[in-house]
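Researcher: Next sequence.
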Amino acid sequence: MIKGIGSFGKQYEIMYKNDVQAEGSVVRTLFEQMIKLDDISVEYLYNSYTDLGNRYKSGSRVLFENIVDAIKGQTDSETVDNIILYCRNIVENCDTDTDNMVFGGTEEEIVERGTYWCTDIARVACVMFQVAGFPSRMITTANTKFAYCGHELAEVYYNGKWGVTDPTSGVVVRHQDGTPASAWEIHNDCNVANKIFYQQSPESEKESYFLYSPGEQYESVGISNYYVDEKENYDYTTSMVNDYCKEILKHSDEQWAGGIRWIHGEDLI
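Model: Next structure:
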């Protein structure tokens, strides 16, 4: 199996090593721990890799217990939807510009300060799912045909199946019959995700789809376990945006005039 921060190739390895998250912090560790989803790893990742038991210890994350109790739905599907909508509201209500945004920290700190950064809000969703009693894990996706096309999501186990959720966009990916759609299913058929993303994604985020469809983001997928009862195993140091990412975001804000490309020489190393 292919593991670690270099799972998506050299260019993406350099990108992840220069992430805005502090060196050694939780997201960097999850990048190091991820397993690439492919024909060799799929059976392991969708069977024994993630513990399906309830690992949450009552009273250990009181903020999220209270939130989950307040938004719990009548069915498991409704609760999953409500958690993702709660996370999406955090993103929508965050008006901090990137230069002043804080990255990382505990999930409680992220909720308190707000964020629109996918790696941070995906962790919030992952923890909330487990507090609600659903096994969940972190999903890293990339379309390696393009530069800087990475995203972070959460995959949650409910109704007897793993399903992708995107707390940044507020989208829960399901098949037409309502069953959860896994990252593996989207990886093999991008149309599984395309229809629902085009229907439900905010208009501001649809602008990014001119390069590739939402489902094509799953060209490469990495999966990392992130258990709510292992908080003491991670470093929650915070950071500010670095020069590497600031330059990328500048080009992104300009809609990649001249075409999306590696701008830090990642493709020359």
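Model: Residues 76-92 form the longest helix (17 residues). DSSP finds eleven helices and eight strands in the chain.
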